[in-house]
Amino acid sequence: MFIKGRAWKFGNDIDTDVIIPARYLNTSDQHELAKHLMEGVDRDFSAKVKTGDIIVAGKNFGCGSSREHAPIAIRAAGVGAVIARSFARIFYRNAFNIGLLIFESPEASEKIKENEEIEIDAGNGIIKNLSTNEEYKANSIPLFMRELIVAGGLVEWTKKRLAKAEAMGGD
User: Fold this and answer.
1) What is the pTM of this model?
2) C-beta of residue 127 within 8 angstroms of C-beta of residue 83
């Protein structure tokens, strides 16, 4: 799987309140959430981001509360992936649970600049900066987490697994 898009650069410790402010948590409508993505740091972000674009951030991306609304809003806005130096552990798991591709790469996090064109070979964890011809390696994603992404998240993975078991005559 390849993702290609423009980089949107954010700093360290981007918390879930910045990703999707708490005042919007009264809805589970993912499209409504997407309208307010990153509003805490860039009020017009959701109008500027295009499908496939890539968020690049520093350390501890997604810190703060454990709300799933944050990765849901990112995915619903059409963001193809998030690259960061590191992720808050709960955000990391929530991202995979809802099918959002994330990559830990300290080098890419540091070197990629706003508006550069990025291509990610998700299967091999290779991040290419097409604007500078540089290439970075992301930390490998465990096999199970890759299965979740391919399936579209934990719920879809579970549905497929249950259907397969049912088809084989299992409970």
Assistant:
1) 0.91
2) yes
